[in-house]
Every structure is written in structure tokens, then in C-alpha cells.
């Protein structure tokens, strides 16, 4: 099933928290401390995917994140569902009645999954460079492992709250995926049942 969806080079996959950079502590140190306070995240997202020189595709939807799990409900331009749990993912296309189940590599788990519960793994898989552009805290992540689909991940953080505002992921083919979060809510109730889905019997399931 061919998708304009760079799942392994996306971010993520998925969410979260910061304040001004006057502190002498590094961004990562402060980020780890802030993320200890976060248990759930609910937000709206806009995903912009540019494949090489081709026209940009824009998606919109809602995301729900808890430790070790995330759910991405794509609403426009067409409905799709993505669920991650630990190192597993499910991509479901209800219109075409197709689904993909598989494993995320370690780099993709960090960027696509529940970011706040994986913060301590970031420096294990990435070389992290910190900067502050136009007063905005920025993390640039370069995979330590050679030959991964991900070339670079740039994370933009809110200067007051340290919540992740935008993630840009550049893959090895030159494709750029940008996910922007808005209306972020933290530590709100999230029903565990939304991470469990029973696919209809007529859905064609494939595994990469």
C-alpha cells in the first residue's frame, strides 16, 4: 500500500514542554525535568509533507498521547488512523479498507511516539544540538546510526511553556515532513480504550 506518509521519518512522532533560556541548565536538562510532570497530551495538528520537488500535501487532525502510546486521527484531506504502542504501529485507511502493521526502528520511536515518555532516550539515538533562534528554543537531532531513513529532526519549543510547537523531519531522500501542534492540553483525561481498535473483517492487512 503506497502512502504519501513518511512514517519512519515523521515525528512524533509525537508532543510537549519549556520556559525561557535564562537558566544555565541546558534545554535537554530542563526538558527532562518538565516532562516528568506530563502524563497525557491532547492536541490538534497540521502535517505538511513535501516529497522532493513535488507539491506539498497538507493533513489535519487530532493527536492523543500517553506514556508508550499515541493515536493520530487524520481528518483532512481524508480520514486515516495511526496508533503507536511501544515499538509497534498501525496505519489504517478506512476508505480503501487497508491497514499496515509493523515495527518502528528506534529513531522513529523517539520522533513519532510519545515524545515526553521517551525523552531520556533521545541522546541515546541522536546527537543533540541546542540553539535559540528568534528567542525560540530549538533542538536539532542527528541520528547516531548510519543509514537510517531519518537525516535530521528539528524541534521548535515554546519559549514560555517548553511545549513542542513544531517538528520538522528531513529524510534521506530529501523529503520534508513538518508537524505543527496547536490547542495543546496536558494532563487531561484520555480514555485508554481509544488505543485499542478492532479492524473490520474486510480490511486488507499488510506488514512491511
Strand-helix topology:
Elements (H helix, E strand, L loop, with lengths): L26 H9 L5 E10 L6 E10 L2 E8 L3 E6 L2 E6 L4 E6 L2 H7 L9 H4 E8 L2 E8 L6 E8 L6 E8 L4 E11 L17 E3 L2
How is this structure best described in words?
This protein has 208 residues and is mostly beta strands. It has one domain: Lipoprotein localisation LolA/LolB/LppX (outer membrane lipoprotein receptor (LolB), chain A). The protein is built from three helices and twelve strands. A twelve-stranded mixed sheet has the order 7-8-9-10-11-1-2-3-4-5-6-12. The N terminus is likely disordered.
Strand content: 35-45%
Q: Order of strands across the widest beta sheet? A: 7-8-9-10-11-1-2-3-4-5-6-12
CATH topology: outer membrane lipoprotein receptor (LolB), chain A
Q: Mind telling me the C-alpha Rg?
A: 16 Å
Oligomer: single chain
Mean pLDDT across residues = 82
Say how many strands there are.
12
- State the end-to-end distance: 9 Å
- What is the CATH-assigned architecture? Clam
The succession of helices and strands, N to C, reads: HEEEEEEHHEEEEEE
Q: What is the number of helical segments per DSSP (H or I, 4+ residues)?
A: 3
CATH superfamily: Lipoprotein localisation LolA/LolB/LppX
| Uncertain residue ranges | 1-24
- Estimate the global geometry from the Cα principal axes: globular
Please write the CATH class name.
Mainly Beta
Count of all domains:
1
- Helix percentage range: under 10%
Structural class from helices and strands? mainly beta
Question: Can you summarize the main beta sheet?
Answer: 12 strands, mixed
Amino acid at each position: 500500500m503506497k502512502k504519501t506518509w513518511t512514517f519512519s521519518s515523521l515525528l512524533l512522532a509525537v508532543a510537549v514542554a519549556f520556559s525561557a533560556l535564562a537558566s544555565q541548565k541546558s534545554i535537554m536538562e530542563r526538558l527532562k525535568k518538565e516532562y516528568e510532570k506530563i502524563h497525557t497530551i491532547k492536541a490538534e495538528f497540521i502535517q505538511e509533507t513535501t516529497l522532493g520537488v513535488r507539491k506539498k500535501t497538507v493533513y489535519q487532525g487530532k493527536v492523543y498521547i500517553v506514556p508508550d502510546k499515541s493515536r493520530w486521527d487524520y481528518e483532512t484531506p481524508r480520514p486515516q488512523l495511526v496508533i503507536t504502542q511501544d515499538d509497534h504501529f498501525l496505519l489504517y485507511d478506512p476508505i480503501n479498507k487497508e491497514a499496515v502493521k509493523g515495527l518502528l526502528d528506534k529513531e522513529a520511536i523517539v520522533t513519532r511516539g510519545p515524545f515526553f515518555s521517551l525523552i531520556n532516550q533521545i541522546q541515546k539515538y541522536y546527537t543533540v544540538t541546542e540553539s535559540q533562534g528568534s528567542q525560540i528554543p530549538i533542538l536539532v537531532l542527528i541520528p547516531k546510526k548510519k543509514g537510517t531513513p531519518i537525516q535530521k529532526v528539528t524541534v521548535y519549543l515554546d519559549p514560555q511553556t517548553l511545549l513542542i510547537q513544531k517538528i520538522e523531519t528531513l529524510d534521506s531522500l530529501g523529503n520534508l515532513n513538518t508537524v505543527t501542534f496547536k490547542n495543546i492540553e496536558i494532563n487531561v483525561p484520555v480514555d485508554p480504550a481509544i488505543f485499542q481498535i478492532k479492524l473490520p473483517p474486510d480490511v486488507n492487512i499488510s506488514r512491511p
